[in-house]
Write a structure and sequence with these properties.
Layout: H1 4-22, H2 25-43, H3 51-80, H4 83-88, H5 93-123, H6 139-170, H7 176-205, H8 212-238
Helix pairs in contact: 1-5, 2-3, 2-5, 3-5, 3-6, 3-7, 5-6, 5-8, 6-7, 6-8, 7-8
């Protein structure tokens, strides 16, 4: 039986190498996300660009780019049958699940930070003072952005862990790419919708503690996906 800690670190390093060096998929995801922001910014009427619209664009792009980024690891494993080596080692499936999920979380967190920066500078306008570049260094703006980053971190946690569950569920299906989207997309929406609602609320109230019930709900979704993965991954892995 392999050392669980050693297997976990091996999976984590392999996944991070895959995201950042092996395929260049992280770079592609960043370019893809920024490209979507440019598309929305210059095709949406400036007069109709409100804060609510900008928030919807922020979270929609994060969901799309997250799905795009998560596909890198799954596609590589489907082609190389990389799970076989982990199975032969005798390691429990949940160790593989945790290693892959945490690597995905690290990747999505960095991607989220890049997305927030691009969003601020592309969607800043005189009508949205706190987002405008000239107001970027104010204390209120930094508190707001810290709140946005934190809620995105929670949402990314749910997305990262959910992505591993749905990918192993789709692994043995002939239509795995279609099945992955069919299962993943609706299950990820509650975390995205809650995060967007929280972002709007803290901007409106400018209160550090407003919307805590939404963060609690978002955290509950993330915890549910983590628990489901730990409990079900072994079973889904063996099927």
């Amino acid at each position: 039986m392999s050392n669980p800690g050693r297997v976990f670190l091996s999976v984590l390093k392999k996944e991070l190498h895959l995201y950042f060096r092996g395929t260049g998929f992280f770079t592609v995801s960043v370019v893809f996300a920024i490209g979507l922001y440019f598309l929305f910014r210059f095709t949406y009427p400036t007069d109709g660009l409100t804060f609510n619209v900008a928030v919807s664009i922020l979270w929609a792009v994060h969901l799309i780019s997250s799905i795009f980024s998560l596909l890198a690891s799954q596609e590589w494993e489907w082609e190389k049958n990389a799970l076989r080596a982990i199975k032969i080692s005798g390691a429990d499936g949940y160790i593989n699940f945790l290693g892959k999920s945490i690597a995905a979380l690290i990747t999505l967190t960095i991607l989220w930070a890049v997305e927030i920066t691009a969003w601020v500078f592309l969607f800043g306008s005189p009508h949205i003072k706190i987002m405008a570049p000239e107001g970027f260094f104010s204390s209120i703006a930094w508190v707001f952005l810290a709140q946005v980053f934190f809620t995105g971190l929670i949402a990314s946690t749910g997305i990262a862990f959910l992505g591993q569950i749905t990918s192993v569920l789709a692994l043995h299906s002939r239509f795995r790419h279609v099945l992955l989207f069919i299962v993943f997309f609706p299950l990820s929406l509650p975390a995205i919708i809650t995060g967007a609602s929280y972002t709007r609320l803290v901007y409106t109230s400018q209160d550090l503690f407003s919307g805590m019930h939404m963060l609690t709900l978002e955290s509950a979704y993330a915890f549910l996906y983590i628990a489901a993965g730990i409990i079900l991954y072994d079973f889904l892995w063996e099927e």
